[in-house]
Amino acid sequence: MGPMTRRQILQRMELPRVEEALRAAERRSSGEIRVSLVPFFWGDVRRAAERAFHRLGMTATRERNGVLIFVVPARRRFAIIGDEGIHARVGQDFWEHVSRLLARHFQAGDFTTGLVEGIREIGERLAVHFPSAGPRDENELPDEVDLGQPV
Fold first, then answer.
1. What is the DSSP string of 92-134?
2. Which residues, at least 6 apart from 144, have a Cβ–Cβ distance to it below 8 Å?
3. Which pTM was predicted?
4. Tell me: the pLDDT tens digits for 27-51?
């Protein structure tokens, strides 16, 4: 598969399903999960994900419990970045577990299911460590999928 345009990415991905998974996960936790889908680029995916983490204001959560799933569909590559509050509680093994889950679906070209299941896993872990404050819980970051640039 060659480089995918933004339109092709959107045609192959069910964004409403992904965004509903984000909302469902966040209802159970004070944590914030974002998904960023970016067009094809050649650079280092992890470094680009770290830049996106800052661009999207992910470090601004009160409990430092934001998680970004950064995906380059054209390369079937992704990075998952958890801020220091959540990372301190779940550790590297958890991120590797979620990465294996995503990779399995992405290799088959099923980005939507991979994202929905990854979000569900992250949401369950966030709910354990950062339970929702109920109606008082503030949605600190948007739930929409970011269709940003890689840089």
1. HHHHHHHHHHHHHHHHTT-HHHHHHHHHHHHHHHHHHHSB--G
2. 19
3. 0.91
4. 889 889 999 998 878 899 999 999 9
